[in-house]
Design a protein that fits this description.
Helix 1 crosses helix 2. This protein has one domain. It contains two helices and four strands, in the order ββααββ. It is α+β, with helices and mostly antiparallel strands and about 90 residues long.
Length: about 90
């Protein structure tokens, strides 16, 4: 999606003679909620299921347990320079 890119600031620190690189997320709290919800869903459902099941479970986990507004994939029209392809695709 345009305009939504991960923003990470790197901080270098020297600890015990070694340079350690720490990544600090710009939206650290939101990132933590999303990662935590994703790990809970994966640990609950286990690997091997259809992607749509994980997507639905993640949305439910974010909305109900974590209080985060979320939605499933948006629908966007798909066109070429000369005509519409007549369908909408999900991203």
């Amino acid at each position: 999606m345009k305009g939504i890119e991960p923003q990470i600031a790197q901080m270098n620190a020297e600890i015990g003679g070694e340079t350690v690189v720490e990544e600090e997320y710009i939206h650290k709290e939101l990132s933590g909620r999303i990662i935590g919800a994703a790990m809970k869903v994966l640990n609950t459902l286990k690997p091997g299921l259809d992607e749509k099941l994980y997507e639905n479970a993640l949305i439910i986990e974010l909305q109900k347990s974590r209080g985060t507004k979320s939605s499933s994939r948006g629908v966007f029209p798909c066109t070429t320079k000369v005509s519409s392809l007549g369908r909408s695709f999900r991203i």
